[in-house]
Write a structure and sequence with these properties.
The complex is a heterodimer of chains A (153) and B (735). Chain A has 153 residues and is of the alpha+beta class. Chain A is 33% helix and 15% strand. With 735 residues, chain B is of the alpha+beta class. Chain B folds into 3 domains: 3-203, Aldehyde Oxidoreductase, domain 4; 211-280 and 334-423, Aldehyde Oxidoreductase, domain 4 (2-Layer Sandwich); 516-734, 2-Layer Sandwich (Aldehyde Oxidoreductase, domain 4). In chain B, the strands form 6 sheets. In chain B, strands 9-10-7-17-14-15-16 form a 7-stranded mixed sheet, with helices on both faces. Classes of the chains: A alpha+beta (153), B alpha+beta (735).
Chain lengths: 153, 735
């Protein structure tokens, strides 16, 4: 089986895939047991599967594993832990910006990317920055407040 | 702790020893299917609801699950308050048929008023037991003792004894005492506090275990291939079409077609690429034929829900008479993550991991369908994507059972996006005809609501995969209490509300958040607004003069004050600024005419060149009795408002003659961040009243407040959801 080497949350990993077109999401969730990224649509429409590749958001449900070779991937688990959350995660926890929490991975990863590019966003910039991420519980107000709070930290 | 040691401990000397790290049960892989772990399950017994361990920690057991609504902290607060312990010392087991008593499934906003109230009463009974045990130990009368920080102590001070030492993993062997005194609300130290939910840190760091994340050794991944038309029969399958995909097994049982593979991506690709031939089927009316399908549909029975006075006579003599038709479309639960379940079917029984909202109901249903005795079938809840009622979870559980049985191995089934949008049972379409009359002073003198609803047959909802596999099952269809809130909450002496129960529904239905009541309130509160406008009376004043209940009046005044309501009739006389028309709307309802009081005001702009509605601000005043956790409650109310704005602005299940065609987020769009309004919520706490549920009530007035605001801005009355730009433009062109 073809092998693919890449950086995952700062560490080198090697994975095998019988299909070079296998989306990275399945590799992360199954071979690597990282469950932060979620399957939502498989169509790059909802954002639940978002990861950072070289610091930029990618929809891992449509990102082929062959394209990840030699690149650096960051997942939700790579940011922080319940005991030591990173500032965006901490802001989400402080604002209780998750109900069912299924979209939360995508929200936090999109917020990381937004704040990397725009450290002090306006309210409208936050809304636009998250425009491609869907939340069904209606936690929008909390999520936006959390990103604004993280920007102040 | 693995299953064997847990079972051994449970059986040893009648001791209840179940402890979990971090408050969440560890599901040991390879758990046996045995439904009897020796744990008390009788909902009349204290031991069924709680166990107090030697170290002073407590485990609560409940069939009510937290689907993201905050029950997990609220129930802890209520139990901890009675037990005199910090919430951090409480672990919870939710929805496990082998461990939790069946005191109702999750839904109908019963998590607090039934679920947590039951647990609170068990805790209050346990408190009395602790005081008695402490009295013996400390040689003081129980009346002189209290429980603080997990210790029974003299109220006046002095040495105490830990509750863990008093009972420590032994059974209480006590009936829940319905008269066990509850703590005086004025002394609450935990109830009413905005404590943080215990599951949020793990949800924000990828550590929370959802059913989608659960796996076990030897587990296969399954996918089900649904037919291209709802009633199509499977004619043939060409297994050679997936020969290039490694290690896939095709499972065919009558018209049930699935694949299993050790590798999930192999299962996904196989399901996508497997060539199958299906028969033609065209049994649906299509969206365009829906209204006729409902109006001309065979009626099972007519039912008068409210019948007082003589509305027909009163209407004929009213100074002004009005009639309107309101329509609500079929809508999807549209869970962000598709439904998922894991089943392990063995010769001696089965275990199912699922995020169903009713573990015990699902067990009863699966037990009948698959002829597995209930005591050999264990159903265990794990969190899933928000379900908002009966999404595809129960169907996915049956899919997993069918595939596990066929494969002889544990199987995880996760639906794809097109499965969830296409095949989740839908919230029903609703059609309401309203007639009303006002007198010369603009008071309501007659009101008539006729509603057409699919008949709510008791029994189990038919499960997709089971029907396809040709296995017999009882066919009911229930969408919850969908008739409530069809009458106005305002003074009117001649009122009639009639339901025409129609026999058929084009698509399978189930309960969808606040079943029926959002559409009913949309009709009633929009029509109220029509009457107020016709009478030339301010909409808030019109409502207030029809009410005497001070709790109703208070929420209305609060919501109006918060938005800075200016008293005047609708529509607004203000002219457009550029292309934008501005308006404000109001709605009020008492949930189920018996529970929460909710009033809501909204400010909107309508772009008269595009028909696009922009919701600027929403204010909501909410009275659900005793508030358990104000922050968690606000989160629910904010979510209810945003989700229902999405339903009102965007959502309609599309279908042709054969199948649902809105099968992704492009064809079934939901509200996005740029559309979110500013939301202000006022909570009216009633510490001496019982707590009510709040997962649904604030959804009910949303569509009416929105439609009323659009009318105020434009003079256009929207009577059909969703309020799409095309529909608004068509209306503006007409008027």
């Amino acid at each position: 089986m073809p092998k693919y080497n890449f950086q995952l949350n700062g560490r080198p990993v090697m994975v095998e895939s019988w299909d070079p077109a296998q989306p990275l999401l399945y590799v992360l969730r199954n071979a690597l047991s990282l469950h932060g990224a979620k399957f939502g649509c498989g169509l790059a429409q909802c954002g639940a599967c978002t990861v950072l590749i070289e610091g930029r958001t990618q929809r891992s449900c449509v990102f082929p594993v062959r394209q990840v070779a030699g690149r650096a991937v960051t997942t939700l688990e790579g940011l922080g832990t319940p005991e030591k959350p990173d500032p965006v995660q901490a802001a989400f926890i402080a604002q209780q910006a998750a109900q069912c929490g299924y979209c939360t991975n995508g929200m936090i990863m999109a917020a990381k990317s937004l704040l990397n590019q725009t450290p002090k966003p306006t309210l409208d910039q936050v809304k636009q920055g998250l425009a491609g991420n869907l939340c069904r519980c209606g936690t929008h107000t909390r999520i936006v407040q959390a990103v604004m709070l993280a920007a102040k930290a | 702790m693995n299953n064997v040691s847990r079972r051994d401990l449970l059986r040893r000397g009648g001791a209840v020893v179940v402890s979990f790290a971090l408050g969440f049960p560890k599901r040991a892989a390879g758990q046996g299917p045995n439904g009897d772990l020796g744990k008390s399950l009788d909902p009349h017994e204290v031991d069924s609801f709680l166990a107090v361990h030697t170290d002073g920690s407590v485990t609560l057991y409940t069939s009510h699950v937290d689907v993201g609504v905050g029950l997990r902290i609220a129930m802890r607060q209520m139990a901890a308050e009675e037990l005199g312990i910090p919430v951090e010392r409480i672990a919870m087991v939710e929805g496990d048929t082998a461990l939790t008593p069946d005191h109702g499934g999750t839904g109908g906003s019963t998590g607090i008023p039934r679920g947590a109230v039951d647990v609170r009463q068990a805790a209050a009974t346990a408190r009395q037991a602790f005081l008695k045990l402490g009295a013996v130990q400390l040689q003081r009368p129980a009346a002189e003792l209290t429980i603080v920080d997990g210790q029974v102590r003299p109220t006046a001070g002095g040495e105490g004894v830990d509750i863990g030492k008093l009972i420590g993993d032994r059974r209480f062997s006590l009936k829940v005492d319905p008269k066990a005194p509850l703590k005086d609300p004025t002394t609450y130290s935990l109830v009413g506090k905005p404590l943080l939910r215990p599951d949020v840190p793990a949800k924000c760091t990828g550590k929370h275990v959802y059913v989608q994340d659960f796996s076990m050794p030897g587990m296969l991944h399954g996918r089900v291939i649904r037919p291209p038309a709802i009633g199509a029969k499977l004619l043939s399958v060409d297994e050679s079409s997936i020969r290039s995909i490694p290690d896939v097994r095709v499972v065919r049982i009558e018209n049930f077609l699935g694949v299993v593979a050790a590798d999930e991506w192999a299962a996904v690709r196989a399901a996508r690429e497997l060539k199958a031939t299906w028969s033609e089927w065209q049994g649906l009316p299509g969206n365009d034929g829906l209204e006729r399908f409902i109006r001309d549909g065979a009626v099972d029975r007519h039912q008068d829900l409210v019948n007082r006075g003589d509305p027909v006579a009163a209407l004929s003599t009213a100074a002004k008479q009005f009639s309107s038709t309101y329509e609500w479309p079929l809508q999807s639960h549209a869970s962000l993550g598709p439904s998922c379940a894991v089943a392990d079917v063995r010769a001696d029984g089965a275990t199912v991991w699922t995020s169903t909202q009713g573990t015990h109901g699902l067990r009863a249903n699966l037990s009948k369908i698959f002829a597995i005795p209930e005591d050999k079938l264990r159903v265990i809840y794990l969190d899933g994507s928000g379900s908002y009622g009966g999404n595809g979870n129960d169907d996915a559980a049956a899919d997993a059972v069918l595939l596990s049985k066929a494969a002889g191995k544990p199987v995880r089934v996760q639906w794809m996006r097109h499965d969830e949008h296409g095949w989740d049972p839908k919230g029903p379409a609703q059609l309401l005809d309203l007639r009303g009359g006002i007198d010369a002073e603009g008071r309501i003198v007659a009101w008539e609501t006729q509603m057409w609803l699919p008949t709510g047959t008791p029994g189990n909802r038919p499960i997709l995969g089971v029907d396809a596999a040709g296995i017999a099952q009882s066919h009911g269809q229930g969408a919850g209490q969908i008739t409530q809130n069809g009458d106005p909450p305002y003074a009117a002496s001649n009122v009639r509300v009639t339901v025409h129960w129609i026999k058929e529904t084009p698509l399978r239905i189930s309960n969808l958040r606040a079943p029926g009541k959002i559409a009913n309130t949309f009709a009633v509160e929009s029509f109220t607004d029509e009457l107020a406008s016709a009478a030339g009376i301010d909409p808030v004043a019109f409502r207030l003069r029809g009410l005497t209940d001070p709790r109703a009046i208070e929420v209305i005044k609060r919501a109006a004050d918060m938005i800075g309501w200016q008293a005047r009739p609708s529509p607004s006389a203000v002219t457009a600024q550029g292309n934008l028309l501005t308006g404000r709307g109001f709605a009020y309802m008492r949930y189920k005419q018996a529970e929460n009081y909710v009033a809501m005001a909204m400010e909107v702009t309508v772009d008269r060149t595009s028909g696009k509605i922009n919701v600027q601000r929403v204010t909501c005043a909410h009275d659900c009795g005793l508030v358990i956790n104000p922050d968690s409650l606000r989160n629910q109310i904010e979510g209810s408002i945003v989700q229902t704005l999405s339903r009102a602005l965007h959502e309609e299940v599309k279908f042709d003659r054969s199948r649902v065609t809105s099968i992704d987020w492009a064809s079934y769009p939901i509200l996005t961040f740029p559309e979110m309004p500013a939301i202000e919520v006022a909570l009216i706490d009633r510490p001496t009243l019982p707590p009510l549920g709040a997962g649904e009530a604030s959804t009910a007035p949303v569509a009416a407040a929105l439609g009323n605001a659009v009318f105020d801005a434009t003079g256009l009355r929207l009577r059909a959801v969703p309020f799409t730009p095309a529909r608004v433009m068509a209306g503006l062109m007409r008027s």
